[in-house]
Amino acid sequence: MTFHFLLLLSRQGKTRLTKWYSPFTTKEKSRFTREIGNMVLNRPPKLCNFLEWKEYKIIFKRYASLYFVVCCDRDDNELIVLEIIHHFVEILDRYFGNVCELDLIFNFHKAYYILDELIMAGELQETSKKTVLRLISQQDTLLEGGPGEHKVDL
Amino acid sequence: MSMSVTNPNIAKTSMRGLTNFISDLRNSPSKENEEKRVTKEMAHIRKEFKENKNIDGYQRRKYVCKLVYMYMLGYELDFGHMEAVTLLSSTKFSEKQIGYIALGILLNEQHEMLPLIINSFKEDLLARSDYFQSLALAAICNIGGKEVAEFLSPLIQKLLIANTSSPMVKKRCALAILRMNRKHIGFVSPDSWVERLVSVLDEPDFGVLTSLMSLLIELASENPVGWEPAIPKVIYLLKKIIINKEFPKEYVYYHVTCPWLQVKLLKFLRYFPAPDESQGGKVLGEILTAIFAQSESAKAGTVNHKNSLNAVLFEAINLIIHLDNDPVLLKQTSLLLGRFLTVKETNIRYLGLEAMSHFASLSNETSIMIKKYQDTVLLSLKDSDISIRRRALDLLYGMCDKNTCKHIVAELLSYLQTADYAIREELVIKIANLAEKFASNYSWYVDVILQLITTAGDFVSDDIWFRVVKIVTNHEDIQAYAASTVFNALQSRNCHETLIKVGGYILGEFGHLIADNPQSSPLVQFNILHSKFNTCGAPTKALLLSTYAKFVNLFPELTQQTQEVFKQHQSYIDAEIQQRACEYLNLTSLNEDLMQTVLDVIPAFIDAKDNSNTTSNTANNSNMINSQDSKISSGGYNQSPQTQIQPQVQPQAQNQQQNVSTNGLDLLDPFGLGLTNQQPTQQPTQQPVYQQQQAESFSPIQNDTVSSFGQQQGGFNSPTIQAAGSPISSGGSDPMQIKILASYKRLCLVTEGVLYEDSMLQVGLKSEYQSGQGRLMLYYGNSSTFPLTNFNITLNSIAGLTLQPQSIAPVIQPKAQLQQPVTFTCTAEFTESPIITINFLTPGKPITISLRLPIVISKFFEPLRLSSGDFFARWKTISGKPLEIQEIFKSTKPIDIQSYNRVIQEGLNITVLKQVDPNPNNIVASCLFPFGSNGQPINSYIRIETNPQANMCRLTIRSQSATLTNTIKNLLISHLQ
Questions:
Q1: Can you give the CATH number for the domain in which B867 is found?
Q2: Are residues B821 and B956 part of one domain?
Q3: Domain segments of chain A as ranges
């Protein structure tokens, strides 16, 4: 289940998070984001969660106001990719506590490192929710525990 | 989602300045305001970075975060990367972490800064903290490239195996290795890795196993050979999970044990043949049966539970189809897939159709097993979901056979009428292919294609109608039927332009077969075509003019009407049409013999691949529908119907004006199909446009003549030249031989130019190479004042190189030119260049010229960039004859390293590696030949040491193929000496 990229799109088509695992140029990235946004957002409900696009497959799922979109290879297992998305959402939800779009906007750097715990080099890395959350919270402890951290903003 | 307690860590670890900044941007009333705010912030941060000497880690972290955020919004960053790098070297986790996250977003593997941070990676990998190691590994997974692989792979390999490494580190190591291998294919070879990687399969941690399986799948997908030792362990792991039910609790996901790992384990096995008894083949059968049994519970439960079970089930089905060795399981599979076709969940229906396509293509038996679902699949064509419709179409295409084809094609045609635009093109191609593939009689085929054109003319590509024309031309028994069918179709008031083209062509060729019927008399045929003339685009008009010219030849009674049309177009704005009108007018009024020769019936098409379908590559694999377009329209004419089409045809249709010069070559190819290769026998000199065209069409060759031979224009009275043997060695004193050899050698390095020239004949060529395929356009120009007759070319394939020349016309008129496309494929190493033999008659005597074609193995080389370390590591693995050859030679001209570099790099496509050898008089180079006879790409490594004082040169070449080593040696000596 090689991911080529992952996009989080709002219902209005705004990009909330992008992660590219395969090399694309900046131009391609913005074109793909637009193209896929159109395909996914305009798709009527109740249809299947898979779209064939270029030589890839797009697998997506909507959670509240956010679309989680993954681009992977044609021979990847579609259902398991759907469950990876769900797994990611559950972890975000557990971490942020009822995650909403704003959490991801203001804590974009956290969203990235949570994603890194889960998916690395386009491949699933860890499948235990408990382990992922434990690792993240240990790192958070390191963040605040470091000596001489400033808490005052300029 | 349930929990609503906010994680206290979020508040504690957030940066207020960053939060405020993001709020500000979000609240910007307009894009301009946002830009203003961004500009201001950038200026502020730039100033801080530049001037604030006391900037601390927290501030730097915050600023870098802000920069990343702006970058994510789409603003360009021209600074800040260095600051992110500075964060990496911090000892504080918080700063390091942001540094790594920023670099992961801002850099890519080609970034110039990457070499700078490899050292930071190394330090963190060596650190005693799991977390520092993890951060560095994550960055390598994100942006690691070849350099990283070269410098850090031993360290990462060690970390993967070490007992002291935590699972967190191990799983990232596995993925870092995967990433490095992707950027540096072949870097993880089974010889040195298999034992260690397989030992990691004993690891109890499921996270490590999941990552490791990703790596193993990647490696096996590249080349499964060598990774077999993993098979028994993979089967054992499956057994442990599925049958023994031993697993850590936290890896249960909605009552399914780590479905991800199960899927990966099953997928891995798909890269290998069915495992035998010793590898656990029998156990695998039990496992697959158990998966079928447990999938029964997928009918109930949460959607996640069902998805997980079905994900494993579909992976198992794919494996069963791949193994193809268990009739019971295959039978179960077919029943299950049949059931999936009618379930409510769209996802499952989609996957069912997809799997059934694989199943159908397996064997005759399997395709019979699913025949009974054909009607259900036909229904799916009308599903509201385009993804489902696509799968259904694909499956029907695969299910089609001789017996069902008429039914399926009829269904597809009726579906075509209502199908949406997104799928029409694919549908049209598939229908055309099926119709041709299973046609029991060609009249049915003609009907289907005409119906395609009528229903969805816009989606019928040129290939399809070229194909129907070709088939009609080659099958005498349907010509009359085709003529009367198109004639009837043309009666409709709104004909698609493609129909007019087909009609024009077929009536022009075979209209006489139905001319006896008063309803379709010559005049009626002409009138019906001409009634459409004004509504057509220029290419169709041009084609119709040719049809009219053909009519004149067949039905003299039409002379007046058609000549009237030609006259009207004598000064038409489009050059091509103007030209045709003028020429046809002359042709039809001056010389009857000539007219009869030129406008004679097109002979049957010769096509080596006559059995292959128009677009078979295309339609067999609908997955590639996007790339198809480009294949068909661009490079496609290597392959099928286009074999007969000269490359000029397509630009002509697209852009008349710019391509007049090339169009000039096709004058007597009245239908633009490249059928008659004869050159215009008459030059209507009153047409200035045309004269210019002629001049231009010859120009590439003539320009080259000057450049390659200087002023030396051959005044040789061409004797019979036998240069075939070996022009190099036989190149004695004969000036003709020297000239031939010089041209050949020069063309070995460049793509176009003159290959041969004497007072009668000039042979020029242009070539193109792309991944194992090549295309040559040979130009034969008659420079004499008499026609060259019985013109005949012999060109044979050699070992490793398959050539497909096209036939050409037997006569070249004075001052005219013929073109001959030759396509060829490289399948293995080859040492010699193919020989082309040209025979023709001049008034008085026969002439034979044999030449070597400048197709050499280096044309197929691909770049191979290696670092110094890499080069020597590989260099050392090969030594001794015959894989290594060393040769010393004296150069005939003063040695110039710069020009050597150019010849090697640009002429011979061998990558010169700078900075490997510090001696400026030496050259180190390498190249990749992708089509080795063992099925593997072959790398070659080259060293050239020169002594400019003595004008001596020593070559050393090493590669895994003795043939290749020797061929490279010969090439280098011939071009450097």
A1: 3.30.310.10
A2: no
A3: 3-135
Residues B829 and B806 in one domain: yes
CATH topology of domain A3-135: Beta-Lactamase (3.30.450)
Judge whether B314 and B307 are in contact, CB under 8 Å.
Answer: no
Interface membership of B73 toward A (CB under 8 Å): no
Does B849 share its domain with B904?
A: no
Provide the β-strand partners of residue B929: B938
A110 neighbourhood in chain B, CB within 8 Å: 10, 13
B627 touches chain A (CB under 8 A): yes
B312 annotated binding-site participant: no
pTM, two decimals, is 0.65
B576 in any annotated domain: no
- Show which of B827, B855, B883 is a domain's final residue: B855
Give how many domains chain B has, as a whole number: 2
Q: Is B927 annotated as a binding residue?
A: no
A74 touches chain B (CB under 8 A): yes
Q: B14: nearest CA in chain A?
A: A107
Tokens of A68: 């989680």
User: Each residue of B255-272: b (16+ CB within 10 Å) or e?
Assistant: ebbbbbbbbbbbbbbbbb
Beta carbons of B680 and B668 less than 8 angstroms apart:
yes
On whether both B720 and B770 belong to a single domain, the answer is yes
Assigned domain for B405 exists: no
Q: Is the ipTM above a cut-off of 0.85?
A: yes
Buried b (16+ CB within 10 A) or exposed e, B715-725: eeebeebebee
Q: Which amino acid belongs to residue B742?
A: A
What is the count of residue pairs from A and B with beta carbons less than 8 Å apart?
A: 211
Which of B307, B426, B630 has the most A C-beta neighbours within 10 Å, making it the best mutation to test the interface with A?
A: B307
- Looking at chain A, the number of H-run helices and the number of E-run strands are 5, 7
d(CA A81, CA A91): 15
Tell me the chain B residues in contact with residue A106 when contact means C-beta distances shorter than 8 Å.
Answer: 14, 19, 22-23
Interface subset of B 77-116, CB within 8 angstroms of A: 92-94, 97-98, 101, 104-105, 108-110
- Across the interface, of A47, A94, A103, the residue whose CB is closest to B385 is A47
Q: Which of A91, A123, A129 to mutate to test the interface with B (most CBs of B within 10 A)?
A: A123
Last residue of a domain, one of B855, B886, B916: B855
Q: Are residues B750 and B849 in the same domain?
A: yes
The alpha helices in B591-716, defined as continuous H runs, are 592-598, 616-620, 625-633, 649-654, 660-663, 688-709
Does B2 contact chain A (CB < 8 Å)?
yes
Neighbouring-strand partners of residue A123 = A120
User: What's the gap in Å between the CA of A56 and the closest CA on chain B?
Assistant: 9
Least confident among A63-67, B159-163, B220-224, B668-672:
B668-672
pLDDT above 70 for B437: yes
CB contact under 8 A, B259 and A89: no
The DSSP 8-state label assigned to residue B657 in this structure reads T
Residues A121-148: tens digit of each pLDDT? 999 999 999 999 999 998 888 876 544 3
Q: Which residues in chain B (156-215) have CB-CB distances under 8 A to chain A?
A: 168, 171-172, 175-176, 178-179, 182, 206-207, 210-211, 214
* Domain encompassing residue B903: 860-976
User: Residues near B446 by Cβ (< 8 Å), separated by ≥ 6?
Assistant: B468, B471, B472, B478, B481, B482, B485
Each residue's pLDDT tens digit, A49-81? 999 998 899 999 999 999 999 999 998 999 999
Regarding whether B802 and B866 lie in a shared domain, the answer is no
Quick one: B844 and B896 in the same domain?
no
- Determine, yes or no, domain membership for B907: yes
Contact B820, B764 (CB under 8 A): no
B414, part of any domain: no
CATH of the domain at B734: 2.60.40.1230
Q: Is B63 annotated as a binding residue?
A: yes
Q: Are residues B876 and B792 in the same domain?
A: no
